[in-house]
Amino acid sequence: MKIEHLDSNESKGAVLAQTYNLAGRTLSKGTHVSQDIVVLLNKENVKNILCAVPHEGDIHEDSAAEAISKALDENQLYAEEASTGRVNFRTPALSIVRYNRELIKKINLVDESIAFSIVEHNQLLAKNDLIATLKIIPFFVSKIYVERVVSLISKNEIFKVHRLQEKKVELIQTYYDWQKRSIFKATSNVTSSRLDALGCPLQKETLIPHDHKSLCSEIKSSIDSGAQVLLISGASAITDRSDHIPKAILSVGGEIIQYGLAVDPGNLLLIGKIGSTTIIGMPGCARSPKLNGFDWVLQLLMANIPINKEELADMGAGGLLMEIASRPLPRALSKSVNKREKKIMGVILAAGNSTRMGKDNKLLRNVGDASLVRNTAVEMLKSDLDSCSIVLGYQSDKVAEVIKDLNINLILNPLWQEGQASSLKAALNTLDHSYSDVLIMLGDLPGVKSMHINRIIEEHLLTNNRKSKITIPSFNGKKGNPVIWGKSFFPDLSNLEGDVGGRVLFSQHPAAINLLDMDDPAVVTDTDTPEDFENFLSNTV
To answer: Which terminus has fewer CB within 10 Å in the chain: N or C?
Structure first.
């Protein structure tokens, strides 16, 4: 093909290479020049036109696209009619698509005139979703190139569409006596929504104590009832292969395929097998509707794709999800979420063992009529925050006991000994996309009240582009707590390691700092030592 200017009388059979706006009609780029078009051009006194002229052996873009599309398996997808050299391919049903990456590469290397694009590997697609597109870039393309592509497709399976199948899925949740039952209802609701989106309603759910005997008994019961997929959400995260859940699977004659997943969030996921039943030990992040590794594994199971070590290892490529909108549910399957602009979650960090305080857990020390941690939680709940959570670790049962009647979400951090960064990550893993900001509160600030929190919230909401702002209270020039972080910083907070908090990020983002001067030293008064605690009590009226 070549582009050249032709006299209108010599242009028949060519294709317009640009658009011509005539008095009575617009001739779009790509229009075939017929005899009628020649007459019209002469009538408008358009004598010199820019045309695409085929070489011998060239075929038109639409004919080329149709020839290639017919080589694809019609049972895998359906092709739309070719237009402007493009054919779109769509899914016939709720499916997962998998493809031969090397073959796609070979197709696109045949010639630059032919471009084949496809969605991500293992992408979940609803019925009629776009799966791939073929574009012939110039107006004409050599028939030789088209035949090469057709040959590659005909001799190989370029991709495969795996339709999702309904399976019998059951859910077991385990609990400690001190845990609020509301968190289990939330897990049930989120899990049901996930399964509904996959066309597979949850068949049965049970709530049992978190002990070996109860787990073994309930797993046997699920197997006997014919469960094809058994989901187990533990009262605490699975820490290793010797934990209650994997031990129970082994005890009833099952095997552990793998503990640990190269997808974040979702690392603490376990996959086992008992006969034909697949068992998933759910990671803590599965309690949130936010995309995580559990979603990917669940989707493959519903598509009858075998789960093995190689398949799981391959998930690591592209498996850093965090705030990345990678492979989300298709729009047609997504649940509507209340995306209120000013939705802020409050998080109390209460997982540490307060070594500087001595043998006592400072969070359990009384301030007035109640423990320090309870007072902190009460003030958080009285504030204008949209929801409140607390991260527990050291003496989690004792801390949970003193706040068990409060409407606050408990987050267990099994890695609390690694430091504050692990608690931040545990909290952020529970956030869904309806939250635009998070307020981080240390558990040892006895003087901070709901009025202080509300003042910080008010200041943060008044800032421009608050998702990229960090609102910090201060007193006499000293930065204090609690701090509100905009959504842009969630990945940075999640990536911290060791016994460090968000303060290490302040110096890295000076332009993001929104400093709020307070007239109360409460925001800078913590209680790290017995002396600090006694000084606070003595100064409290």
So the answer is: C
- Contacts for 209 with CB less than 8 Å, ≥ 6 apart: 174, 175, 176, 177
| Amino acid at the residue 436 | S
- Polymer length in residues for the chain: 541
Q: What is the signed CA dihedral for 67, 68, 71, 76, rounded to 10 degrees?
A: -120
* 339 CB-contact burial (10 Å; exposed 0-12 / middle 13-18 / buried 19+): exposed
Asked if residue 337 has pLDDT above 50, the reply is: no
The two three-digit tokens of residue 363, written as one number: 């969070």
Q: Do 38 and 180 share a structural domain? A: no
Place of tokens 């009609």: 25
Considering its fold, how many domains does the chain have in total? 4
Separation CA 433–CA 280 (nearest Å): 25
Percent of the chain as helix, strand, coil, to the nearest 5: 35, 25, 40
Residue 99: which domain range? 58-163
Measured on CA atoms in the order 89, 92, 93, 99, is the torsion positive or negative? negative
DSSP 76: T
* pLDDT tens by residue, 250-299: 999 999 999 999 998 899 999 999 999 999 999 988 887 778 899 999 99
Q: What is the CATH number of the domain that holds 23?
A: 3.90.105.10
535 and 390 within one domain = yes
Is the full-model pTM beyond 0.85? no
Residue 326 lies in a domain: no
DSSP-assigned beta bridge partners for residue 130: 90
Residue 230 has pLDDT above 90, yes or no: yes
Residue 56 structure tokens = 């011998």
d(CA 440, CA 456) in angstroms, rounded, equals 12
Q: Please name every residue paired with 517 in a beta bridge, in sequence order, or none if there are none.
A: 474
Copy the structure tokens of residue 116: 């084949």
